[in-house]
Amino acid sequence: MDQGTKIKKCCASTHGISKDAIMIVGIANAGLVGTIAASHIIQKLNLSEIAYLYSSNFPPVSVFMDGELKHPFRIYADVKDSKGVEKQSRIFVATTELPLTKDPSALHDIAHVLMDFAEELNIKTIVTLVGFPVDDFDKYDVFFAAEPSMLDKLKKIKGIEPLPKGMIFGLEALILNETLERSLDGFSLIAPVKEMLPGTRSAAALIDALKLIYKYIDIDVKELIDQDDFLQAKLKELAEQVKRSQGEEYTPPPPPSKSVNSLFT
Length: 265
Hints:
The protein is of the alpha/beta class. It has a single domain, classed as PAC-like subunit (Rossmann fold), CATH 3.40.50. It is built from 7 helices and 11 strands. A 9-stranded mixed β-sheet has the order 1-3-6-7-2-8-11-9-10. The chain has a two-stranded antiparallel ribbon with strand order 4-5. β9, α3 and β10 form a beta-alpha-beta unit. The termini are far apart.
């Protein structure tokens, strides 16, 4: 394994980790839905950064937030309750704003190291948030793809549907493949997005789907929807900056399907 890929811990909760803890993975995929959803969850639940993933294969980009330099791939957790009192952590979020390398071996390393960390924390469930580019849709339906251990539970939840046929690509796919090889339950929530536009409303739909599955996740998405126009403009600007900085290294997302129905063919 590439010794340049590793987890570095920032802090740990003195009250441990809940037995039903989950890790949500939201990265810069199609429509940036993973990053948008993860950022909103982190903000609304006031999660604390507990670790970050370092890789020598990350693109040469620095991430700033309000002028503060941030690690490119961060891991957060709910180490404190709404009153600031430390508690058992139940919700973990792994996120990055970077378009990750397309080198398969490097992505394998990142997925492997991240799932090693999840197992070290004794997290049992991993969920990835995915955008699927389509040209034409009028509803923000959410679909799921899951390993067998999760199917029965997810099929009972009204408001999300199984994806009959299709493929997931990139780091999210490798994370799901890792869960199949380990004692982890893994699944993806998938929402349609329009090509090259930040999928703010799709991200809101993914968060609403999470709320259906995990009742203890209480996050209002109204603010996210209300700020849709502003966020789309700013995130589109960020995406263009990243593309310019990456030059030939940047690989655009796959071409969109013609409709949501084509997800199933």
